[in-house]
Structure formats: C-alpha cells, structure tokens
Design goal:
384 residues, alpha/beta, 5-stranded mixed β-sheet, globular
Length: 384
C-alpha cells in the first residue's frame, strides 16, 4: 500500500510530505520512502496562522478561513507530491495544530485545522485526518504520536535507546526499560525562532550562526529552567500555548537588554539542558535525532557535550531522512488505521488503551479498506 503522509509542525513554516510504500513481512513492516519534500506555506497564510496562535484571540470567521486555506494548501502539496511520486492509495493528513488545550497537565482537547475534503477532492483517494482526538478522548495526551514510529524503529537497537525530534517542541521516545515512554521535553526551536524573528526579522537562526557567536546568560537560563513543566512526570505534552513569544518577553522584562546572539545562545542551552536531563533520567545509551533542530550545530553539539557516553545518531542512519521523519510517521499512522490497528501506545500517551486513530474522508469512489489485521507489526525497517 502506498500512503502519503502530510504534516506541519509547531514551526508553522511548511507542509512536509512523504510517500511510503509499505509491505508487511511476518511481524516486520518494511517501508520504502518513495518521495519526500517540504512545501513552504504561502507567506500570507503563514502570517495568518501565526496571528491565530495563543495567546491571541481569534473569531470563528478566522477559524473557518484557516480551516479552508490550510486544507487547500495541504491539497496543493498532496497534488504536487502525487505528480512527482505517482498515484497513492491513501493520504494521512495531520493538518496544522492551532491549539492544544492542557489544563494542569491534563489534555482537554486539541485542534488541528486543514479540512481534509479538499485533499480527497483533489486526489480522489481516502484521507485519514483528525488523528489526535481519539487518544485524548481515551484520557491520553494526544501526543507525541510519533512514538508509534519511534518504538518500531528503535526495536533493532541495543537498549536503552531513545528517539529525539527537535521541531518547534522537542519530544523524546524511550525504549528499553519496560513499556516505552514518550513525552514533550519542552521547547526545541519555538523560543529560538521567536527570538530570531524579533531580533533579526528572519524566521530562524540559520545553522545556529548567531547562537554560536553569543554567550549564555546564566541568570536568564536559571529563570527559564525554573519553568514547572520540566518537573512534571510523563506522559506530558506542551506546545506554543505555553512556549510562545510573549512567554519569552515576560522573562526578558525588567532585565538588561541582551544582544540577540546571547539570547539565542541562552535559548539553545535551555533546549540542550532540558533534553539532556530527560535522556539522563531515562538512562539512555543511544539517541536517534531528527527534525529541524538536528541541523543546528550549536544545539546538537551542546546536547552531545552534556551526554558523554551516549551515542548520537541521526535518523538517516536508520533509513529515515531526518527532515522526512514526521511525514513518514503520519503515513505509518494512516497505514495502521487502514488496517484496523491502534495507532497509539498507552504507556506513551497516558490513554486508557490503544485507539484506532482518525476519521476517514472517502475519495471519489466507494470506500474500500484492506482486511483488518489481527496483530500489529513488532518492528519497522525503512529504506529510500
């Protein structure tokens, strides 16, 4: 089965697409990455998305426009991907998270926009979407959903091992100590991107060049590390509902102005420290990294320096290009849903049980799905 995974993360900059050809051999699922690409949001749409993020208030008219425009942008990406890679049997679209409602550690709801009917109409094939809410309804965090891919991918590594994704938010999946555990460790690029935009007008610090030229401010770092979220026990999840530009501005208020280089160096150290603390707490010996932050040498070097004795790999070494991993994860979730398999692990999300994820929008013809499987794969192996 050929599945197209579509995702846009907490950096809100582009839609990632990956076409994966899946083949089940015994209890191992083999995935061949046929095509992967990132399609930037139109500048005006990205600005509209950023204007709708917490702590700003929005109208229902704005929500309706965003649901339509994001859906159309996802459909454009799906069409361009299918034109490059050939026909697909199924699409799994994560959409764009606009709000993740967390109340004292409990997730009450989560909202991803991007109406899937636009994709189904454009490609004519079924679309799995709204993949987080079933887990939330079962008492889970609805995140990190990439933990399904991570546990299958890490199954062949000597444990204990972990998978770290450095997007807007950093999330970690840990295996090797009983049931797998997954959680958001805190911000990865979210605060750094906010600082870069405010200080330079650019959306991010390319290659960590500004952070590399700066010095860590110990007082600011200590204040940031005092955030209560870091001391919560997993399962836990967070997002830009907490770690946003105004959050950073609140920490900077009343302090002496910092050069943007020093601010970025301090924020990179914050991410490295919170990631390293989580890895040490789990006793991991191998860490597989992916996401945009894996391309920031300041960030990765600091993580490595804080974790002597831990082997650091990129997901590329396991057949999954770092930039495509999130989109591949949603292709995998689509495959699981199509085959009647739960896409969540209760020990990772905190739900009362595994749940079949998403809702399906039919394509142009009658909805036909494969025969349900009686058991899930125990491992996954990928190649390009």
């Amino acid at each position: 089965m050929r599945v197209l995974g579509l995702s846009s993360g907490t950096s809100h900059d582009a839609i990632d697409a990956a076409v994966v050809e899946f083949r089940l051999d015994g209890d191992t699922l083999h995935g061949t990455l046929v095509h992967a690409a990132a399609h930037p949001y139109p500048a005006d749409l990205r600005a509209e998305i950023l204007d709708a993020l917490p702590p700003r208030d929005v109208t229902l008219a704005a929500v309706c426009r965003l649901d339509t425009r994001i859906g159309q942008s996802f459909a454009d990406t799906a069409a361009a991907t299918a034109a490059a890679a050939g026909p697909v049997d199924l699409v799994c679209s994560h959409g764009q998270t606009l709000y993740h409602w967390v109340d004292d550690g409990t997730v009450r709801g989560t909202l991803q926009l991007g109406q899937p009917a636009w994709i189904a109409e454009r490609l004519g094939v079924p679309v799995v979407s709204d993949v987080r809410t079933a887990d939330v309804a079962a008492g889970g965090q609805g995140a990190p959903l990439v933990s399904l891919l991570d546990t299958l991918l890490l199954s062949g590594l000597p444990g204990p091992a972990g998978a770290l994704n450095l997007g807007g938010i950093a999330n970690l999946t840990s295996v090797g100590h009983g049931a797998p555990v997954a959680f958001d460790t805190g911000p990865a690029n979210a605060l750094m991107d906010a600082a870069a935009l405010a200080g330079t007008g650019r959306p991010y610090d390319e290659d960590g060049r500004l952070a590399a030229a700066g010095r860590v401010d110990p007082a600011l770092l200590a204040a940031l590390l005092a955030e209560p979220y870091y001391r919560r026990e997993p399962p836990k999840s967070t997002g830009k509902e907490l770690f946003h530009a105004d959050y950073l501005a609140g920490h900077l208020a009343g302090r002496r102005p910092l050069p943007v280089e020093d601010l970025l160096a301090t924020l990179a150290e914050l991410t490295a420290r919170t990631v390293a603390d989580a890895v040490r707490e789990r006793g991991l010996r191998t860490l597989v990294m992916s996401g945009g932050g894996a391309d920031n040498p300041v960030l990765t070097e600091r993580i490595g320096a804080l974790l002597p004795g831990v082997e650091l790999l990129r997901s590329d070494a396991l057949g999954l290009p770092s930039a495509a991993k999130e989109a591949v994860a949603f292709a995998l979730l689509g495959w699981f849903t199509a085959h009647g398999l739960p896409g969540t692990l209760p020990s990772c999300t905190g739900a009362t049980g595994g749940r079949l994820l998403g809702r399906i929008t039919p394509g142009h013809g009658p909805l036909r799905l494969p025969e349900p499987l009686t058991g899930a794969p125990a491992a996954a192996r990928f190649s390009c």
